[in-house]
Design brief:
Layout: H1 33-51, H2 59-71, H3 80-83, H4 92-105, H5 107-133
């Protein structure tokens, strides 16, 4: 059968490719979605193991009084910082999502949920951009 194939049609590297490793180094086949998902989850686990999860500090510290004021307006009724956001609040969307979620699973659970969701989504997007930059197809 090989004798019927013109030698000019043969790939010079076809004979050198190992047939038992279809997804090996240099393969044009992109990794499966499950391997990307595992990589993202491992990155998340490593991040939490090395850095830990810090709740109620950083940018959360100044947004939480705004959330508590949405849930009970009497607590921060005289606070000038909270009252400064009465006319215009750029955090309305964030506070609405956090308010709805915290009523169901509690404030700490809601903060962890949204942190995890945004971390995993960002890591997945970076992996996707990497696949696209390396020549993998758009539908992969």
């Amino acid at each position: 059968m090989d004798a019927l194939i013109d030698q000019s049609q043969r790939s010079p590297t076809a004979a050198r490719r190992p047939r038992s490793f279809p997804h090996g180094i240099g393969s044009a086949t992109p990794p499966r979605h499950s391997s990307v998902a595992w990589g993202v989850l491992i990155a998340f686990g490593l991040y939490l193991s090395l850095n830990g999860y810090r709740s109620l500090e950083g940018d959360q510290a100044y947004r939480l009084p705004l959330l508590v004021d949405r849930q009970d307006a009497t607590i921060y009724a005289a606070d000038p910082f909270v009252r400064a956001f009465d006319a215009f609040n750029p955090h309305t969307g964030y506070l609405t999502l956090l308010d709805l979620t915290s009523r169901v699973i509690g404030l700490s659970g809601a903060l962890l949920f949204w942190f995890s969701l945004t971390f995993l989504t960002t890591a997945w997007a970076i992996a996707r951009l990497g696949r696209l930059a390396c020549g993998a197809g758009v539908g992969d």
